[in-house]
């Protein structure tokens, strides 16, 4: 990643003038000048060889392990493991941003887990850098009853600048499988999409 940062020098001119008139010294005849300190900060992608200034760096996977079916519907109220965090790196983009997540059908070969409902509760938001001064983005419940995309992590215009993580604990994920499904090893794909506008 190419990063261009131009910082000018800080210059402050102070001129002290004292005069001698008739043998007396006038030390309070002081003159000052005020100058500016400037910095030109550019975003990656605005110079040749730069990269995009808004990136979806990583996304989590959820594994519910092995669960027993019952004849009355099954709620698996937490994942067995969560691997990875949802990470957005926003290097100076001020238009806001939004991450949505969509799932495919849960399949075991050609067998579908009918009526599945995957819920991702609000995770914990944190900045990668502890001294980040931007207003944090927000996380929200994504209820994936079907394959439609749902917003999960968003920043209003001017917020969410820098690198931010939405960290999911195992208790933030739950899966419901209605009665009438058959045993199998089911897998669904999660598609995470980042756009440069708030939800």
UniProtKB/TrEMBL annotation:
The segment(s) forming the WxL domain are 42-198
| Cross-referenced Pfam families | WxL
Q: Which domain of life is it from?
A: Bacteria
Q: Please give the InterPro entries that the UniProt record associates with this protein.
A: WxL_dom
This protein is called: WxL domain-containing protein
């Amino acid at each position: 990643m190419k990063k261009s940062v131009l910082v000018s020098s800080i210059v402050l001119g102070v001129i002290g003038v004292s005069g001698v008139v008739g043998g007396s010294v006038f030390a309070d005849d002081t003159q000052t000048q005020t100058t500016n300190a400037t910095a030109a900060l550019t975003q990656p992608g605005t110079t040749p060889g730069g990269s995009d200034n808004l990136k979806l760096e990583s996304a989590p996977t959820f594994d519910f392990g092995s669960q027993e079916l019952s004849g009355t519907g099954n709620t698996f109220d937490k994942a067995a493991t969560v691997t990875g965090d949802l990470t957005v790196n926003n290097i100076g983009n001020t238009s806001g941003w939004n991450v949505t997540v969509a799932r495919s059908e849960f399949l075991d070969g050609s067998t579908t887990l009918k009526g599945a409902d995957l819920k991702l509760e609000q995770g914990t938001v944190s900045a990668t850098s502890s001294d980040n001064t931007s207003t944090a983005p927000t996380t929200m419940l994504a209820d994936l009853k079907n394959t439609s995309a749902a917003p999960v992590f968003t920043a209003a215009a001017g917020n969410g600048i820098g690198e931010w993580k939405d960290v999911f604990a195992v208790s933030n994920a739950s899966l419901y499988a209605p009665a009438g499904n058959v045993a199998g090893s089911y897998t669904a794909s999660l598609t995470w999409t980042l756009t440069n506008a708030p939800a």
